[in-house]
Amino acid sequence: MRAVLVIARGDLVRRVRNRSALITAVVAPLALSVVFSLVVGGPGGSARFDIGVVAGAGGLSGEIATGLLEADATPVRFVRIDSSTTAARRVDDGELDAALVIPAGIEEAVGGGAVTLEVLRNPDQVVSGGIAESVATDIAQRLDRVARVLSVTGEAGARVDGSTMAAAMELESAVAVVAGRSAGRDLTPAAFFGASMSMLFLFFTVGFASESVLVERRQGTLDRLLSTPTSAATVLAGKAVSVGVLGLVGFCVVWGVTTLGFGARWGRWPGVLAVIVATTVAVAGVATFAASLARTEQQTQTVTAAVAFTLALLGGNFVGPGQSPELLGTLSRLTPNGWALGAFADLATDTATGAGTLRAAAVLVGFGVALGAVGAARIHRVVQR
Amino acid sequence: MSAVRAFVSMVLRHLARDRSALFFMLVLPVAIIVIIGSTFGGQTRVRVGVVVEDGSAAAGELLAELRDAPGIEVREVDDRDELTSRLRRFAVAAGVIVPAGYGDRVAAGRTAELEVVGDLTSLQAVAARAAVERSTAGLGGRIAAARLVAAETGRPLEEVRTAVERDEGASVEVRVRDVGEAVIGDRSRFSLTAPQNLVLFVFINTLGAGALLVRSRQVGVLRRVLATPTPAWRIVAGLGAGWMAVALVQSLIIVAVGAVAFGVAWGDPLAASALILVFALVGTGGGLLLGAVGRNEDRVGAMTPVVGLVLGALGGCMTPVEVFPPALVRVAHAIPHYWALEAWRTLIFDGGGLVDIAPSLGVLAGVAVVLGGSAVAVLRRDLTGG
User: Residue A112: left (phi > 0), alpha (psi -120 to 50), or beta?
Assistant: First the structure.
């Protein structure tokens, strides 16, 4: 055991001195998780959308436009525009995110006439286009309510006046949509990407172990080491411990910094720690197996990168939870990445159960032990050759 | 000129040996275009799990309304646990819960609440929530309209509800029109993601010039070359030309795969070629500068993908700039990727030409000159200064 720790310590000191290992284990996942969480709406405030409104001067069309312009609809800001031609040009030039054209005489819709509300959008700005379309749909639904109220009230022979119409226009939906409690709280982007990027770069951190076996063999230091009473298994274990410690420390630093500095909520710490350890074991196993397929240092890097990115693509590390196409969602359950990200998401949203977390951790450790054992046996043969 | 040729062949030999670089150059960009494209680009209907905890007729009416809602595909789910499990398995993008007591609240004339669950970082969940809101606002609006009429006329609510449902309502069409001058009718759903990945990966790979330059400096190759009559700028030009050639080949492959396999219309060929060329220059300049200031090949090699991914994310290669917070939009303007993507949008979505993307090309060319010039200056000082 002492020999393992001596080898691990020596390996670790070398890696920390050559700062590339620190970049891979700590700087890279931290930088990427911070940047990713910022671009999807971090502490800098959310996105703002400028939507142009083109409307007739008077009548209902003008009233609706005034209502929109006066409303505090953060993050949407409505801007009055003279004509649909100007609006189209400004949307095209990127000065406006989208625009809405409310035709004059829109009240005709209430009396049975056909009216068209036009949304002008830039085809490469789907989010802004969607917001403008939602506003247009809301106006259409309000007109629909007014038409029905006037028509049914009129049928009954009751007097229909301006106040009825105004009341109908102001009606709020009897069905409200609220954020549910079932899935716990929202997943903070910093927590998701912190876990996701730490996991991705863990492959490269762990890959150093197998690579360094090949480097030491080339430089002849491995033969010298093996000529002492140190066994090949001890050398491998020492290297595994060094990258394991480095990977774990990197993961925990990202956890700490995103939590303290960027308000990420990873969930209850015992669960998070358990999943981090299990994920490190899983990635260590997969990376060891992948590296055992390589014969040269160059091949080790190639195979590690290919496996890391393929699993990350299938496991959903890049697209975020709930965004994967159905097939990919199913495939992600066949990867350690899918299991780990699922467990981290459950913990971060407070929907994790003890049994669920343990099951995910067991699956991850299973991945790691099974593939790691095969990989270690293959590398062991290389070491003894 | 022979010095430039020698460096070009050195770069190509280096790459032929480095298969991980080839993986990053060719396989990864195409895989990501497919996955991200199919995620964000085109699913027309988002899957929504619905749990109905209320046995009333009103709840049944709501479920029917949701089934008819455009943009979502309803999957009925037994209970909240099953819904959570489906959300976690990504089997549904969002969930709707019709809670017990929904029907009572509707009958009592109060506002009935639906719960929508899902992850707010997911664009699909956000789209699903918007579709659910639109659909329920239609139904909730008709219920509210019936209540108003019943109050105004004194007729029984049930009778008025039936009349309101039967009424034709207003004929208001919401028409969405794409602005711009593009002649393409049905744009490929990869039209947004393909240029993002082209820009992202070409930049990451051209930054790879950095590690090679550091190695060449470390083993003394550059100092030896400088002892010959070859000036420093020609050494930099030679190394740069090698990486430029690689960047151009990579760009052409991504453009070809995008066009043939995913139907991306990249726009005016002349303008597109100019853009590819100038952006490859920017990446190469960045790589050379990294290589000129870097001291350790491993460190520069480890930093390269991080710098490339961070700049790519900030420049809008991963999430469109339109959803950035305002402060980050200003940051994006300082990143060359942003200008390259602006130009690609003009070419792809507006059918623009060389003149239309001239401002972006100008910014990119300026950045390339600054980066390349700085690399030459640093290298000259480093190699001749002792």
Answer: left
Query: Which residues between 321 and 380 in chain A have a beta carbon less than 8 angstroms from any beta carbon of chain B?
Result: 321-326, 328-330, 332-333, 342, 345-346, 349, 351
Three-class DSSP category at B241? helix
- Do residue B119 and residue A46 have CB atoms under 8 angstroms apart? no
Return the biggest CA–CA distance within chain B.
102
ipTM for this model: 0.70
The A114-121 sheet, strands edge to edge:
A76-80, A49-55, A98-102, A114-121, B171-178
Q: What is the chain A residue with the closest CA to B325? A: A47
Chain B contacts in chain A segment 49-78 (CB below 8 A): 49
Using CB atoms within 10 A of its CB, is residue A175 exposed (0-12), middle (13-18) or buried (19+)? buried
Residue whose structure tokens are 């001058």: B181
Q: Between these two residues, A136 and B215, which has the higher pLDDT value?
A: A136
Residues 6+ apart with CB under 8 A from A66: none
Sign of CA dihedral A250, A255, A259, A262: positive
A76 secondary structure, DSSP code: E
pTM: 0.74
DSSP lists the bridge partners of residue A77 as: A50
Contact A121 B179 (CB under 8 A): yes
Return the pLDDT at A156. Answer: 64
Chain A positions in Cβ-Cβ contact with residue B171 (cut-off 8 Å): 109, 112-115
Please indicate whether, in this complex, the C-beta atoms of B90 and A322 are within 8 angstroms of each other.
Answer: yes
Domains of chain A (ranges, CATH numbers): 2-42+188-384 (no CATH), 49-170 (3.40.1710)
pLDDT digits (tens, 9 = 90+) for A254-280: 999 989 988 888 888 999 999 999 999
Kindly report, residue by residue over A146-186, the tens digit of the pLDDT.
888 888 887 766 666 777 777 888 888 889 888 765 445 56
